[in-house]
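Q: Entry one of two.
A:
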Amino acid sequence: MIEPHAPAPPRPAPPRSGPERPPARLPVRPGTGRFLVLAGVFVCAACGLVYELELVALASYLMGDSVTQASVVLSVMVFAMGIGSLGAKRLRRHAAVGFGAIEATLALVGGCSAMALYAVFAWTGAWGGLWVAGPRCLLVAFSLAIGLLIGAEVPLLMELIQRIRRQDAGGAVADLFAADYVGALVGGLAFPFLLLPLLGQLTGALLTGAVNVLAGGTLVLGLFRRDLTPRGRRLLLAANLAVLGLLAAAAAGVGAFEQAARQAVYGDGVRVALRTGVQEIVLTGGTGGRPLDLFLDGRLRVGGQDERRYHEALVRPAMTGPHARVLILGGGDGLAAREVLLHPGVERVDVVELDPAVVRLARTDPALTRLNGHVYDDRRVRVRTADAFARLRTMEPAAYDVVIADLPDPGITASTKLYSREFYDLARRALAPGGRLAVHAGPVASRPGVFWTVEATIRAAGLRTAPYRVDGRGSPFAAGPDRATGARSAPGDWGFVLAARTPPRLALDPRAARPRTLTPAALAADARAAARTRISGLPPSTLVHPRYAG
């Protein structure tokens, strides 16, 4: 029995995770020093997440299929963070200099990753399979390297915090992770809302690298400089200045680099190149007898050599029935509207385009306005800037006689909802009795599975279909890479599906101006050619279960 006034037995000392290190010799009070370390954690975490998002965004733009690219980056990076954290245990005895060296390396690798990835994409396109393999290998390499370096930060920061003031491990971890996660939140919001729209991917990544190296270098050289030898301080300062110089030089040359890379991808005839909040728009040709090409995110959407054949095949068969009221989903370039207005009896054409910059170019660019016949000067044509899916949801039933879906390829991840059963349910509701739906469904010869999945999805929405395909003359859509498939030369045909509540008949309106590229006999042959590729039994694509390969 313990006496009432006997001293309590001593508590056992908390276990140590390693050999005791002497307290850090700080130029400030421990409380201030601890705050500065947590502030450094905040900044470095924000930079790390920006690198991660920048890799995902650029890889999705260059290689398509954002789901696959995000999965590759995130899984490789998280795996590498674990390996980096284990490897950093050997550096804990030299935590300050180790952290400084890691931040300088991370700033250089992360800051230059976007430029390196874009350079490999632009200048290896002529090497066949390397068009996708080169950037994808580099993507994995950068994800691995950045993940290793980010993972190595945590043990070293924990050691630095503990050397300032010893506390229980749980409290130190809580403080460290709180600063880390809040920094990640700020970086995650800054990337899409500030860095990307204001600076772009390349300059944004370089600026992030500069912030990273300044934060890491200031923390180590300012707060823990007494833990470094004079030689160590000189080397770390030189390394930080060298990284800053390289990042600054790269930032100064971004404009020339982008121009050279763009020419490597699109050729030397680039007239307009701009990045909007939706996509990158590039116009080439259109002068000096060269055909006009319009690229959206690297995919050729309008090829002056073959666009008439494409748009006639998309629009003309849908206009054989009632067509007073026409809805065009996509088609902000005005070329589908041009074909619609060639038919007598059209009273109203509504164009729903996501990117207003495409419409501005279609109104103002001389070559593009010549190609679309100045359709936006026609009072019957009205434009609404909106997402096609959202617009269909708010539309009155039976509002249109014809609905034309001139949308990006179904193999692009961002477009899969526009080729879902739910989308076609909404399109069917928007059709008046006797109305028709025309859908661009991607190439048939190279991706029959995607084409027939579109057709099966339309049928699942309660519509009857008439699928057909047309060949492109020359090399349709081949002036640039097809990032949905990874091939430099795009497919040589287009697939379409005409749909209605009753079985539609492929024909041409005899009252309209005669098409330049189509005849009724050719349409019938095109339908037979498509039928020979039919794949039966494919399930429809839905919002929760998309079935289009990216």
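Q: Entry two of two.
A:
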Amino acid sequence: MARFNTRTARPAGSSPVATTGGRTTTHRGGAGYLRDPRGELFLLAVTNLVGQGTFYETGGQRDDRFTQLVRQLAVEDPAWTAGLLKWLRTGGNMRTAAIAGAAEYVRARLRTAGSRPTGSHETAEPGSERREGDDPSHSTISNRAVIASVLQRADEPGELLAYWTSRYGRAIPKPVKRGIQDALGALYTERALLKYDTAARGFRFGDVIELVHPKPAAAWQGDLFRHAIDRRHGRDRDIPESLRTLHARARLTAMPVAERRALLSGPAAQVALRDAGMTWEALAGWLQGPMDAAAWEAIIPSMGVMALLRNLRNFDEAGVSDEVAEQVCRKLADPQEVARSRQLPMRFYSAYVAAPSLRWGQTLEKALTAALANVPALPGRTLVLVDTSSSMNEGFSGDGTVKRWDAAALFGIALGQRCAEADVVSFSSARYYLGDSPGARTKTFPLGRGESLLRAVGRWKDGGWFLGGGTDTALALREEYAGHDRVVIVTDEQAGHDVREVTESIPASVPMYTWNLAGYRAGHAPSGGANRHAFGGLTDAAFRMVPLLEAGRNASWPWET
């Protein structure tokens, strides 16, 4: 009888988030597995909004663990860490973690360079710049390139400098300055100055320019740099003629307040606002009154995807016309616009919850589908377990509007809808502790054929599929696994103690994919090979690994594909 060469046999692929063999316990006392530093940092980075605590860790504890891992790997594996930080800001859509990580990366490498023995050809004082790169290990990755790679928006050079000076003082190393120099040519524009250079910022555009001395990319930018410095120091000098957007804004600002709203009713309103670099926030301040339908209709053509998502309810309340609403819908439903906006999938769900009007529902569904393009259509039978324990009832950000179990439900249902056949199940330990029968410790979610994903997530939220309690993952597997071809668990991995481990609760031959939404240190199962894999993040990027692994190929880090 054949034992290995069977119809269901497949080559075993490996995945990058790997455990070391070291053992520990989860925060709930269950069996825990330690990951290697790269895997631990990756899962933490893709779920960490800097300064935000979770159920089991304070914001400070998470930030400390993040910075320690970045410092360690910046020295031990600088090329990998540089790749992570660049991808984190772009493909991973995580802004603050990438900026803080780049600063810590450079700090660690400069300290390593400064600690080398005197006389060594690799010795460098902290803050010095090497002509052949600035890595003491002769890596081809320069510190300045890492800094430049995470600066994708015009307010971020100031953010990075504020982070650095708050932790390490006002002495700025040359690699940091030169990395910012490299980024400013593309970032500092007239529109960016009008949008981001406000008195509320600790580092104004003029401060950044005076500190790093960037070389202008063109003559107009040289004028802009000088004007930003004058503006910072309150010098009342004429705006250079080359800065046409600033002149257009100045003309609008000079208009009497009583005459401003009349401008919006004319056919030239959209052009005038666009030429003056008006955002919707600036327009509201300029009008010094409510944003009515005319105001919104004049500014909507200039608004990006994020601004549109934030204001759908405002459009409805102001009575924006159906014609203009169609313009909004066309932009939000455009996959290229969605990709360019780098919005996390949960942003579209949040917009749907905030603006339940039927005029936006189909559009937001299309946008969400575009944002989840990497969720695969898997053959065979799939068991999707969604962790709805109390530790998942934590907001990703300070306002708490979107919970981890919201994201878990969204990813779980999206995957279930695309699979050939799927059982999507909510699990925790609450029903068990409340004394329900042994078969009622989980709750299966019925997928509706052709149902909108947004509507399905709403039905999950309103219909009692958020259970609360502890994380009884092993028990859920034993009760729900019934010969499925694979298991996907969307969770924070903090399983409680059980008579059997999570990994032992289904056959070793069945692939088990863990989608981590919290980035804690301990995993609930081994990962990296042998049909046990862990992914993570608030985007759909890592879902690309599942088809690769099932084809017997090795999956790599997202920025290496």
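A: Comment on entry two: The longest strand covers residues 19-25. Residues 258-341 form one domain.
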